[in-house]
Amino acid sequence: MRHALIPLLLCGLLAGAARAETPPATVAAVDLARYVGTWYEIARKPMYFERHCVRDVTATYTARADGTLRIENRCLDRDGEEWRARGKAQVVPGSGNAKLKVSFFWPFTAPYWVLWLDGDYRAALVGEPGRDYLWLLSRTPQLDPALEAAALARARELGFELDDLIRPQQGG
Hints:
GO molecular function, one term: lipid binding
Subcellular location: Cell outer membrane
Oligomer: single chain
Strand content: 35-45%
Shape: globular
CATH topology: Lipocalin
Function: Involved in the storage or transport of lipids necessary for membrane maintenance under stressful conditions. Displays a binding preference for lysophospholipids.
InterPro entries: Calycin, Lipocalin_ApoD, Lipocalin_bac, Lipocalin_Blc-like_dom, Lipocalin_CS, Lipocln_cytosolic_FA-bd_dom
Distance between the termini: 58 Å
Number of domains: 1
Low-confidence stretches: 1-19
Radius of gyration: 18 Å
Largest sheet: 8 strands, antiparallel, barrel
Protein name: Outer membrane lipoprotein Blc
Number of helices: 3
């Protein structure tokens, strides 16, 4: 009986390895004119550059004349000190605007993939191919529970581990 479990375990391990090697799917297309503006961070996987961000975490995207996006990330730390990071994003050709290359420190870039997007652009799930980073964003400081559940269900379907999500305080 134990020997019968070995092939099943191996299949499970191989399926998990294949899933981890396959990048998560993005949305088909993003209307950048609708995507620009301010987004509130509802939840995120731990990230070194945001380790100090505990309150009022936002990302503001502004369209630039050269076709790139200006990014300004803002947050407050435990002492109420404001932190800001400015960067830019460039669309990956052929991605329907769902994949961007983001740079906060030239010449380094990082992938920014829109993995799920509410049809009304009220909420978005953003990640990267390795599944190490993930952000749940909302147009408002609090997200409708149904939208949050839909976004997090999609993240699980795409193979993201969600046990370590950080939820910053928004709105005060």
